[in-house]
Design a protein that fits this description.
The structure is a homodimer. Chain A is of the alpha/beta class. Chain A is 47% helix and 16% strand. Chain A is built from 16 helices and 14 strands. Chain A has a six-stranded parallel sheet with strand order 1-11-10-9-12-13, sandwiched between helices. In chain A, helix 9 links the parallel strand 9 and strand 10. In chain A, helix 7 runs parallel beside helix 8. In chain A, 56% of the residues are buried. At the A-B interface, helix 4, strand 2, strand 3, helix 9 and helix 13 of A face helix 4, strand 2, strand 3, helix 9 and helix 13 of B.
Chain lengths: 439, 439
């Protein structure tokens, strides 16, 4: 890790800069794959799966016998762990329902907002060597709570043509059976455009490699929504003198093992904690199965010594990390000043990895500084919020004249007329009523 | 309007299809403009403004004297209308705050969610002949409620180099003074990348022509968020026999006057209402200043006679309109079955144009079928929702073992270690406490 001692604020932007990857060529290549699938449907998907995954698929969907076989291949202990995680994720996301009950914004003008599920969603789950069944929990549970009717899962099969049993077990555990054995840009394309056998969906979720991410960005042009443009995983840790260097080191490494392009940032106001943490990182990394990956990630990672914890928070807000651990005495107080972050972990007993699996919060979070403008996935991500309004006769009387004036000022006469016509009808109704009263 | 009598469901998709525009060339052209601004900053913006708007700007920002001059150029009546609209918009959006208070997902595991404003936002407001000061109200008010610190407005100046007074008055009325005299793709680029004089923002909002929309879609690749990809405006009206043909016709025309590419769809279960409405459209269109525009829009618009109102709702959900008027006896009941729509207007006294200006709901809404996956702009659009979690010793004991199992199954050992290390430390602490108790 590169170490910075009390860097000037003017240097922060450079320290916080993520590595930039040249995207243009990647995008052009992925666009061709998408066009191929849009044009040739199943045949294109089959051909691309043969080319990139090295397998031939007659049927893209996982069959019932494959589901059944998976059940026996997952340990009972792991099944219990999945049930516990699912329960906590469900509990937290279930708190996220929010509608706006009718409010009278003016006399006779009632406005409210209701939620509706996105009817058809696609969940991309990376597979292969590291089967991310945890991502399936994180995406499928809020989709089900929201009431999405059609939930399609797509995850690449291994060389054997089989999907990892932990993913198939988790899907069944949640009651989901539409699982495509597809990976890469072709999986995204199939769900975005639909093919002869794959239904199209309205929104695509899930992490993936750079091809998957590029495909997700590009299908937006066809009107398909995506959860967010996900990049390499990140962690920033803020620690003070009461932090435990061994804990902090293990947290930094848990992020570094994700991939060579993962980034970890360590910010502290304590020189001793800085040194001990760096030493602990060195000691712990040696025993990791993925130590080469972790070392590569550490090479582009940073340790920053700052004057005090306010500066640490300001630095973190500049970086806008996906994950933020605050391992300080006053973690709860500092949390109030965090503006840009995906998910925040407080105190010495809250490693980031609990959020990856089982605390209940969502682990699909904005990376690469996107936390400045994006939130992580939540129940909201699977819902649309529709506004409703109802005016009665008093209502159109109350706000109609203002609408007429504004529409005319915007030179939209038909907008004004739609109101004027009603105001005139109302005037006639009232005259008629008056003359009846006079009789 | 093209009329369909009781079309088969299999024909609905075709009837609902929007006109498709070839985007590739447009995108390539806009990408060049964006690159130019990213490379050359203010000089590029100045050059493109000269080229496309025909004006030379020394300073891009509106000056104090220009603001002051605008105040006198707006009628007092219009000022009152703007105040009324602002008040209603503020009332409705103020109901949209929602945080998730701490919930214990497991013993010792506390999770919650808080809102944070997006610090820097850019609002694009179309100008020129039709100055959309109403869009400024719709975007700036929730931005201010959310607490966005930096709110940059960009709106094109006319040939005189001046911004329309109604827009400048509205900005001042809201207390906003950072107004750029820029339009088109160069305005979006300046706010997305920043220049020597224009600060970059994290999210860009607002309607615009096809160049503005293309620019918004493309800057997403640079990590800048956008409200939504906005297309031509749309309205679908569902009417039964109690609807008033003159009212419905005025609503259809209020949408048709927006632009030649606007689309209006009229769905009814009553033959007489259908005929009378079409006749009323013909009668009313003749008096409109924008009748040529409206007629062109009507040419690609559709009237559909269906068997009953359930079919009307199903048809509307297939189309997924930006605006939906339900002018039926049982409008409130039908509203429950609306799944895909941006904003819904109920009953005979709720013309769509009240939502454009003053009912209080937002008029920045998903078009082109995007209502299947997107919501309109709301307070949420200007906030990020950050999740927090805090485990105490009991918490890590409670869920730690499940996390270890799941991380190991995903072959992420360092993730497991971050928990195991803490569980071991806890065990040592407890042993030490026990031996002290024994003494």
């Amino acid at each position: 890790m590169k170490t910075y001692q009390y860097p000037e604020r003017s240097a922060w932007a450079d320290i916080c800069a993520r590595p930039v990857f040249e995207q243009q060529e990647l995008m052009a290549g992925v666009r061709e794959l998408l066009d191929f699938v849009q044009r040739s449907g199943d045949a294109a998907v089959r051909e691309l799966t043969r080319r990139f995954d090295g397998i031939h698929l007659d049927d893209f969907f996982v069959s019932e016998p494959e589901f059944e076989a998976a059940i026996d291949q997952v340990d009972e202990e792991l099944k219990d762990a999945i049930a516990l995680a699912a329960n906590n994720i469900r509990t937290f996301h279930n708190q996220q329902f929010h509608e706006v009950p009718p409010v009278d914004t003016a006399r006779g003008v009632s406005c409210w907002r209701q939620n509706r599920p996105i009817e058809k969603v696609g969940l991309y789950i990376p597979g292969g060597t590291a089967p991310l069944f945890s991502s399936l929990l994180m995406l499928a549970i809020p989709a089900q709570l929201a009431g999405c009717q059609e939930i399609i899962i797509s995850t690449p099969a291994g060389k054997s043509g089989k999907v990892h049993p932990a993913i198939l077990y988790t899907a069944q555990f949640l009651g989901l059976k539409k699982v495509l054995k597809l990976g890469g840009a072709q999986a995204v394309a199939a769900m975005a455009y639909g093919t002869e056998t794959v239904p199209n969906v309205y929104k695509i979720f899930g992490p993936g490699n750079q091809y998957v991410t590029a495909a997700k960005i590009l299908v937006q042009e066809a009107g398909v929504a995506i959860d967010m443009p996900a990049g390499p995983s990140e962690l920033l840790v803020i620690a003070d003198k009461q932090a435990r260097p061994a804990f902090v080191a293990s947290d930094l490494l848990s992020q570094a093992e994700h991939g060579v392009d993962s980034q970890v940032i360590f910010v502290t106001d304590d020189q001793k904690v800085l040194e001990e943490t760096l030493a602990a990182v060195e000691a712990q990394v040696q025993d990791l199965p993925r130590r080469e990956t972790a070392r590569a990630a550490l090479a582009s990672s940073k340790a920053v010594l700052v004057a005090d914890l306010n500066e640490a928070v300001a630095f973190s807000n500049t970086y806008a990390p996906e994950h933020l651990i605050i391992a300080t005495e006053n973690a709860l107080e500092l949390a109030d000043y965090i503006i840009n972050a995906g998910s925040v972990f407080l105190g010495n007993w809250t490693p980031e990895s609990v959020g990856d699996y089982a605390s209940g919060t969502n682990h699909t979070l904005p990376t690469n500084g996107a936390a400045r403008a994006y939130s992580g996935v939540s129940l909201d991500s699977f819902q649309k919020k529709i506004t409703f309004q109802r005016l009665d006769r008093r209502g159109i009387e109350e706000i109609g004249p203002a609408v007429v004036l504004m529409a005319e000022a915007e030179q939209l006469r038909a907008h004004a007329d739609a109101v004027s016509l009603r105001l005139q009808a109302l005037a006639r109704e009232m005259e008629a009523a008056d003359s009846q009263n006079t009789l």
